[in-house]
Amino acid sequence: MEEKTVFDKKSAEEMDEISKTLFAPIYPVIADNIIKTSGIKEGVCIDLGSGQGSLAISIAKKTDLFVYAYDFSGDAIEIAQRNIKNCNLSSQIKTVEGDVHNILFENCFADLIVSRGSMFFWDKPNLAFKEINRILKPGGMAYVGGGFGNKELRDDIVNKMIIKDPKWEEKYKRNMSEEKRKIFAEASSGLQNSKTEIINDDSGFWIVIKKNTLMTM
Q1: Which long-range contacts link 88-92 to residues 24+ away (Cβ below 8 Å)?
Q2: Model pTM?
Q3: Both ends of the chain: CA-CA distance in Å?
Q4: Which of 42, 112, 146, 214 is the most exposed place for a label (fewest CB within 10 A)?
Q5: Would you call 131 exposed, middle or buried from its count of C-beta atoms within 10 A (0-12, 13-18, 19+)?
């Protein structure tokens, strides 16, 4: 039986500690990959399942985007607010507490939507992807998935995490399994007025959604 992940203050603090140590190098690399793929450097960005805010912070540092760090966990939001303040980015990043299955933004709101690691915890991926597509502006892009940015970081971090927590390897393999990839690929396919592409390489497994510039009813 698959173990249910607990999201509480303790787990939020643990993830914050890992994000500032072992995982710290991945966020700037993933941000660079997102910017290179999307070409979007200004406007509105939403980081879904932002957690402690690491990816949101990296995106803000590298672009002129105004970033919403969006997460359903109040404990994670509290930590993100502290991290954002410590990086002097409070004027460029705003935290929002909410559910990815019912995103608290209007239609055609965001130029760029990003997310690393959160989709593996979505109860209904098909609904979440429809919500992502709904709030994307025409011509906007979403870059959603999981990974470590490149092969070197992946191999190094995976090996160190297995030593740190032997149970983590099972979770990692399950999340990145062919079965999971198929579920997410199917859940993100057929979105209205959008084209979906899959990136499956050393950077990780990512779903890229490109909203058409011209909308049809």
Answers
A1: 89/57, 89/60, 89/61, 92/60, 92/65, 92/66, 92/67
A2: 0.94
A3: 43
A4: 214
A5: buried
Number of residues assigned to the chain: 217
What are the tens digits of pLDDT across the range 26-75? 999 999 999 999 999 999 999 999 999 999 999 999 999 999 999 999 99
Closest to 53 in 3D by CA, of 29, 25, 89:
89
